[in-house]
Amino acid sequence: MHRFLFVFLATLMVVPMQSAEEQQAEVIGQGTFPVSDSVSALWLNGPSPGSRPQPLIMVYYRGPANWHNRQWHLDSQIGKTPARARLVSDDLELIIEYGPGGRDVRVQKQPVDLSAANVFLVAPVAQANEKATITGLGLVPFNVPEGGNPALYILESNPNISKTVLQ
């Protein structure tokens, strides 16, 4: 009996425990799209029962005309926790971070609650020193059809969100 207990305890000590940082995130990709001359979208995709990955979170960024016409560098971290989609220019960063199970989700480094909204608007954006407001626009069922653009689909299928984002 004592020998069995010792072997069991020894096995526990040598089996590496996987930390939350090492566990695979639910995020499998990201996307970005310039919706208009003043609105751009950034999102993280997760697996879905169908063949097309679906957004887990959609963030629209609104600023003055042509604010997003600049050199961007995409810096993503997919398959690790937290997953991250980050667009970086010389003077601006757009960022979404997604913790395991949808906990500890951040937009522009500010915590957001995915149980209250999964679509957000960040405005105004144009430069890093501007104080932008993050507004939850509601819970949207993400069922983007094959070949559809997630950023456009959400706006087309949700008139209230479209009105707020494109105003």
Radius of gyration from the CA trace? 20 Å
Regarding quaternary structure, what we see is single chain
Q: Biggest sheet, strands in spatial order?
A: 1-2-3-9-10
Strand % is: 25-35%
Please work out how many helical segments DSSP would assign: 3
Instruction: Determine the structural class based on helices, strands and strand pairing.
Output: alpha+beta
Percent of residues in helices comes to 10-25%
Strand elements, count: 10
Largest sheet: 5 strands, mixed
Distance between the termini: 73 Å
What's the SSE pattern? HEEEEEEEEEEHH
Number of domains: 1
| Mean pLDDT over all positions | 83
Low-confidence stretches: 1-25
Gross morphology is: globular
Mind explaining what this structure looks like?
By secondary structure, the protein is an alpha+beta fold. The chain has one domain (19-166). 17% of the residues lie in helices and 32% in strands. The strands form two sheets. A five-stranded mixed beta sheet has the order 1-2-3-9-10, covered by helices on one side. The chain has a five-stranded antiparallel beta sheet with strand order 4-5-6-7-8, with no helix packed on it. A hairpin with a 2-residue loop joins β7 and β8 (110-112). It starts with a helix and ends with a helix. Mean pLDDT is 83; it is low at 1-25.
